[in-house]
Amino acid sequence: MPSQPSTTSSTSSAAAAAFEYAPAPESRAVVDIRSSYGLFVDGAFSAASDDGSFKTVNPATEEVLAEVAEATEADVDRAVRAARRAQDKVWGPMPGRERAKYLFRIARLLAERSREFAVLETLDNGKPIRESRDVDVPTAAAHFFYYAGWADKLEHAGYGADPRPHGVAAQVIPWNFPLLMLAWKIAPALATGNTVVLKPAETTPLTALLFADVLRQAELPPGVVNIVTGAGATGAALVGHPGIDKVAFTGSTAVGKRIAREIAGSRKHATLELGGKAANIVFDDAPIDQAVEGIVNGIFFNQGQVCCAGSRLLVQETIAEELVERLKSRLGTLRVGDPMDKNTDVGAINSSQQLARITELTEAGVAEGATRWSPACDLPSSGYWFAPTLFTGVSAAHRIAREEIFGPVLSVLTFRTPAEAVAKANNTPYGLSAGIWTEKGSRILWMADRLRAGVVWSNTFNRFDPTSPFGGYKESGYGREGGRHGLASYLIEGSTY
Amino acid sequence: MARTTRASTATTAGTSERLSVRKTYKLYVGGKFPRSESGRTYEVLDAKGRFLANVAQGSRKDAREAVVAARAAQAGWAAATAYNRGQVLYRVAEVLEGRRDQLVAEVGAGEGLTARQAELAVSEAIDRWVWYAGWTDKIAQVAGAANPVAGPYFNLSSPEPTGVVVVLAPQRSSLLGLVSTIAPPLVTGNTVVVVASEQRPVPAVTLSEVLATSDVPGGVVNVLTGRAAELAPPLASHRDVDAMDLAGAVGLDGATGVAGIGWGELEAAAADSVKRVLRPATDRRGNDAEPDWTEAPRPQRILAFTETKTVWHPKGI
Amino acid sequence: MSTTATGLSDRSPADVAESARSVTGSTSLDDAAWRRFLHGLPGVDRVGADGRAAMLGTRSIKTTAKAWALDTIVRMVDLTTLEGADTPGKVRSLAAKAVRPEPNDASCPSAAAVCVYNDLVPVAVEALAGTGVKVAAVATAFPSGRASRAVRLADTREAVDAGADEIDMVIDRGAFLSGRYEQVYDDIVAVRAQCRAGGRHAHLKVILETGELATYDNVRRASWLAMLAGADFIKTSTGKVSPAATLPVTVVMLEAVRDFRAQTGVQVGVKPAGGIRTSKDAIKYLVAVNEVAGPDWLDPDWFRFGASSLLNDVLMQRNKLATGAYWGPDYVTVD
Fold first, then answer.
1. Do A269 and A489 touch, CB atoms closer than 8 A?
2. What SMART domains does this protein map onto (chain C) (predicted)?
3. Nearest to B276 among A469, A493, A497 (CB)
4. CATH number belonging to the domain at C13-322, selected among 3.40.50.970, 3.30.450.20, 2.60.40.10, 3.20.20.70
5. Of the candidates B297, B189, B285, B197, the residue with the CA atom closest to the CA atom of residue B247
6. What is the pLDDT of residues C67-94, one digit of tens each?
7. A379 with A448, same domain?
8. Are C111 and C100 a contacting pair, CB within 8 Å?
9. CATH no. for residue A375?
10. ipTM confidence score
11. CB-based contact (8 Å) between A27 and chain C?
């Protein structure tokens, strides 16, 4: 539509009685949080060898949720040995159809206990309960269900007649989708006959530890999945352990590069799912209302703490002003606040460190001359919060247009032609995802061919499915998770790196 | 080579046999045959230690130029239809066939093979090229997928070229190994910078002449000769290189790495830009080893230099 | 181009035509001009629109917000009976229910209107005189609209003359789907003229019958065509075709009225009709109004529900909220 929303509201006086949504908090009572958690090794919980621990907090309130054991090198070693024994003696020799049934059990148990997981995820991570309830937990269960079915069909997956597992997989996962990333890692590893040592992120260990209880209920043999909590040092000890065969990492590009260097010259295989700086490209013939929703979902889903977030909005100049106005109106309706409220759209930032990084980069954006805008919203006084933020007047050289912010901050840039859009979209060391919005089918396919990104969402954004491969080009990493492709890197015959 | 060898004996023998015109061995970069910008050459001997040729000793700058040429050619090569790439690659096999005698002589001299063994190696190399040429319009069907997502979306995954691939060509198998490592990345639309076998580079130079006289666009394959230890590190750390095949990082004597540089160092350097690295093969005991290139190939070498792209689109009226 | 306090547009026919020419950028307003304009509107991606509606449907409206919503829904209901078996008695009963939906509870507001066929308008007018509850009449050979223009205009005129406050007309879907946009536009303009004839000022609701338009793109186009022809309200459905009102279709129409006001300054109302039977569903529509069009539309002048059974469910929910006990259908009146 050619004009911007007018400010001359012609409302009748009787109207505009505010429809204030009363608080609709999800009940916390559904989950029991223990005061302390040990390491889950060889089917049992135990303290760290040096009794070390760290606290995990609710980022929305800064309330301490639990003390969690911090695994030492010795603990990691014990976990790797347990995983090796389980792989040699139990999980490796087990027929695929039996492994499948364990995975089906896990999928069902996750679904049965979904509310518990959703609440715990939101408490530990800060994401809105609507997202953990509607996205994270059901998608995690679906992931196990999908890979369960592969366990006894691997000979038909295209990796030879008798594809073999690597052995022990070291898996290091991030804090943005704690349970979902756990599922993305563990499900294909177990389906292919590998055993696992998993390290959850230090700020979000709780759903992984609750998952250990699901494994107990599933009666998964001891040692098949081991969970070692801790920070960077624990992860480094795990990746560097000589007893592992395969590394699967999701996290920052900087750490991904360290891991790649660490395993260089070894025979450890790796998949790396790293950072991103996705372009979300909107043409002037886009389905405009859905594009606005897609942009909002692309950058404010999970507070923008998503590696594939559409953090660079590339708008065709002809509609740039109109689109920005529409976006601003839409951002005004986002509900920021208590993640446990079922009506919250934007929750808390996961940690004070992450909040500091978002703050630093947005300040750099202002300093470099971009125009910052946020809707009016009252942020809670405790916890880690950042208002949805829009930057206009952004040039490709600005830090906010180049560096991954990993927060609810959108940079708006413009283009004139499809070729310019492609050039700008690809002008980044990252290559994880991209979005295209246009009603012209042939243009979508033309663009999709040229965008250097592992996932291209056209007229949609931030869709995930267990059957659909996910992973990056360039510095966004290598290897794919999801789908038949997600089996490859857990099989000797399918692995190239 | 055989003629060259004969010629060199002829001069001393003073017979009536014609003095042959020797070839200057150059690099192949961007479809042209430059000398090394360094002006250097190095002496290449045959398997019995006799002089074969002075070959261009490429430098870091030559490597840089080769990457520039490969990058410039990549988009066009990838944009060609799979059918067209298949025809272009098949054409290379046709031209190789025409150079068969020369290649047999060169492979035989360089690798110390009997005429019969050399013929087999060259035949296998040409057939290998044909095998890969046929993959161009099939790999997406084998490696792609229509994903049945739980929602109203069309969802398709397909392999795409990684980009610019550096190949450290096998040190031992100077033609079959070379073909077996550079053809796979070409199939999907990658362009290649190849560092030829250090001590057996002559077939690589001949291959570059074949490429130049077939339909392969300039820059799609760039052939560097020289010291692997000098050329490999700057290529491994080059930010505009997307992937590396370290097949050649196993010495002729089976020693790991190239001339004192462990392949792990190259892999570590490659990590700085998250390059995809195909490590050297191992033997049955798990030691680094150059594989037996006569074994039946698998498409995994093609897939090692692809990226899976997944495209989503809603289905609605 | 201003609106009155009651929300009724007082645009003159000349204003309407001028606005249509200005917005479409065409002086001729023939089929080609309409096609250029309507097909130049941004497309609607069905999956995305469905997803947006589904997200709005997840809002959890509790306690005070729910109480406010339930009363607002009552105030927005066009209590409807459109059966061949309708009688004056049935209409009087419905009218009584509309005026005092909850006979024992003075705090319960009245419904917005009673919606009947043309021949029963006099009965409804008499029954509702002085109550503030409006009389709405379906007209223009409802529900198919398959009659000559003369018959449809006479149908309208009769209802207006009988005292109908609001006319719910149907568009000629056949003409719309075959691209005869000019005809659809002229129909609406002509019906609107009947609504304003003889010094009367009946509120015009234009029924798009979205279930027959098949695509959301068509819903958006038909919305704009109707608004440019002078509709006071755009309404989803007759209730006689399945699917009737859906949340995504209503979201698309709410986007249309929002954009129309942004462009022309004229506010148009929206009425989903048919198939909305529960408070839970109706609250989702209110959420959509609130978040898509905005709070300005949260008023019976700008949003209505065409429904019959919805009211009783809302009343039961009201009682539940007030007493904490779940209520049964025997405790609310059968209309």
1. yes
2. DeoC (SM01133)
3. A497
4. 3.20.20.70
5. B197
6. 999 999 999 999 999 999 999 999 999 9
7. yes
8. no
9. 3.40.309.10
10. 0.95
11. no
Residue A205, preceding bond cis, omega within 30 degrees?
no
Which tokens belong to B244?
Answer: 């590396």
Interface contact A21-C266, CB threshold 8 A: no
Whether residues A312 and A202 fall in one domain: no
Which SS3 state, helix, strand or coil, does residue A94 take? coil
Domain of A34 in residue numbering reads as 28-274+475-494
CB C43 within 8 A of CB A285: yes
CB of A287 less than 8 A from some CB of C: yes
Return the residue in A473, A476, A480 with the most chain B beta carbons within 10 A, the one to mutate for interface testing: A473
Which of A15, A289, A439 is closest, CB to CB, to C298? A15
- Joined together, the tokens standing for residue C187 give 């129909």
* Closest CA in chain B for residue C219: B317
Please indicate, yes or no, whether residues A270 and A283 belong to a single structural domain of this protein. no
Taking the CA of residue C174 and the nearest CA in chain A, the distance in Å comes to 26
Categorize the per-residue pLDDT at B16 as very low, low, confident or very high, splitting at 50, 70 and 90: confident
- With an 8 Å Cβ cutoff, are B265 and A264 in contact? yes
Contacts of A468 (CB under 8 A, 6+ apart): A482, A483, B147, B149, B155, B157, B310, B312
Same domain flag for A283 and A245:
no
Q: Which residue out of C168, C232, C301, C313 is catalytically annotated?
A: C168
Quick one: A151 and A202 in the same domain? yes
Instruction: Tell me what the pLDDT averaged over chain A comes to.
Output: 95
Cβ atoms of B174 and B111 closer than 8 Å: yes
Partner chains of A (3+ C-beta pairs under 8 Å): B, C
Distance CA B193, CA B29 (A): 9
Q: How is residue C297 written in tokens? A: 């539309």
**Choice among C97, C134, C205, C271 that is catalytic:** C271
In a domain, A287, yes or no: yes
pLDDT average, residue stretch B207-229: 97
Nearest chain C residue to A437 by CA distance is: C45
Model confidence at C332, in pLDDT bands (50, 70, 90)?
confident
CB contact under 8 A, C298 and A5: no
In this prediction, residue B15 carries a pLDDT of 59
What's the number of domains chain A is made of? Answer: 2
Model confidence at B14, pLDDT cuts 50, 70, 90, reads low
Nearest CA to CA, how far is A208 from chain B (Å)?
A: 25
Superfamily of domain covering B2-6+23-314: Aldehyde Dehydrogenase; Chain A, domain 1 (3.40.605.10)
- Higher confidence at residue A42 or residue B2? A42
What confidence tier does B10 reach under pLDDT thresholds 50, 70, 90?
Answer: very low
From the list A70, A121, A273, A481, the catalytic residue is A273
The residue of chain A nearest to residue B310, with distances taken between CA atoms, is: A455
A23 in a structural domain: no
Chains A–B, number of C-beta pairs less than 8 Å apart: 124
- Judge whether A72 lies within some domain: yes
One DSSP character per residue, A19-84 reads -PPPP-BPPGGG-PPPSEE-EEETTEEE--TT--EEEEEETTTTEEEEEEE---HHHHHHHHHHHH
Section B169-182 average pLDDT = 97
Q: What is the pTM of this model?
A: 0.95
**Which residues in A lie closer than 8 A to residue B162 (C-beta atoms)?**
473
Q: Are residues A313 and A200 in the same domain?
A: no
Q: Is C168 a catalytic residue?
A: yes
Q: Identify the closest residue of chain C to A341 by CA–CA distance.
A: C60
Name chain B's partners: 3 or more CB pairs within 8 A: A, C
Average pLDDT across chain B, whole number: 94
- Concerning whether C271 is annotated as a catalytic residue, the answer is yes
Per domain, the residue ranges of chain C are 13-322
Q: Does any domain span residue A18?
A: no
Rounded distance, CA A21 to CA A130, Å?
A: 15
Does the CB of B316 have a partner CB in chain C at under 8 Å? yes
The pLDDT score that the predictor gives to residue A17 is: 53
CATH number of domain containing A260:
3.40.605.10
